[in-house]
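JOB MANIFEST
job_type = single_chain_structure
chain_count = 1
residues = 116
[input]
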Amino acid sequence: MGYLSGANQVNLNIYGDTGGVPGILLAGPVTVTNLPTYPRWGFAVADFTPVALTAGTQYWVVADTPLSGTGSDFFGWWSSVDKTILMAWDLGVMYGGWEEINADSLAAGEVLGTIP
């Protein structure tokens, strides 16, 4: 997560999956403050109340802000991880070939836990 303007805080939540979109709130919100300011990147670490999750199941980490009050004006970004996809450009013999572009951005994040 990174900070650009407004109050330097964001809420992180863990949701279950319902048909490929966030479903039921399982944990959170946990307010994270003092995020690195653009153009620096950093980690937003949230300590959630323990919640039982199942390995191999899709969950959602959602960043949001309150509708009003402190933090409602947060503006920032979520780091992403890009897959590299090769594209062919036919620009003649001298310029032809494959060129790599980044596409299919995925949010960068991780939920770590323990096995009871």
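[summary]
The chain has no helices and seven strands.
The mean pLDDT is 79.
exit_status = 0
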